[in-house]
Amino acid sequence: MMQLSKSVTQKQVLSLRTGGVIATVIEPIINPNNLKIIGFLVLDKFNKSRLVLLSQDIREVSEVGYLVNDHEVLSEEHELVRDQNIINLHFQVLGKSVVTANRNRLGKVDDYAVDMDSLYITKLYVVKPLLKNITGGQLSIDRNQIIEITNKKIVVQEPLQGVKAGVFANATAAN
């Protein structure tokens, strides 16, 4: 099942044990190396602190929210030593510039689609710059077209070229 970024983040975290809301999702934690959502920063309902919900602790995704066993699956950021580098990056896909391998500017990421079974970002939806947007519409970029991701931009193959098994595509296919 695919969902857009807004429907991934605007959710509650519910405890199967108590049957109630235990937290609210603030933002996803995205690994820029493979565009996988490894977890979510959440706001604890009880003490209003920022905690982390790792994706492996989610039992089920429903329209209401993310179902977890109990409040105990939420961790403080400093406790997650293995994922600390990715958490500290605060990597965001939305608003990132998208350019081609030949340095042609395509626009900025306006939205993305997430495969909810694997939590990989599968498509980027790019809004063209105002001058190029006279024809209207968005560009849809598949994850296999991504060549490189940096702090400031996402480099993709030229539009209308066939999808090649690039470095990024091969790295994510192994996961």
Largest sheet: 7 strands, mixed
Overall shape: it is elongated
CATH class categorisation of the largest domain: Mainly Beta
Number of strands: 13
Structural class: mainly beta
CATH topology of the largest domain: SH3 type barrels
Query: Any idea what the radius of gyration is?
Result: 17 Å
Tally the helices: 3
Describe this structure in words.
Helices cover 10% and strands 42% of the residues. The protein is built from three helices and 13 strands. It has helices at 5-9, 84-89, 167-173; strands at 2-4, 12-15, 21-31, 36-44, 50-54, 60-61, 65-68, 97-100, 105-115, 120-127, 138-142, 146-149, 153-156. It is elongated and about 50 Å long.
List the helices and strands and how they pair.
Elements: E1 2-4, H1 5-9, E2 12-15, E3 21-31, E4 36-44, E5 50-54, E6 60-61, E7 65-68, H2 84-89, E8 97-100, E9 105-115, E10 120-127, E11 138-142, E12 146-149, E13 153-156, H3 167-173
Features of this protein?
mainly beta, six-stranded mixed β-sheet, seven-stranded mixed β-sheet, disordered C terminus, elongated, 10% helix, SH3 type barrels, 3 helices, 175 residues, 2 domains
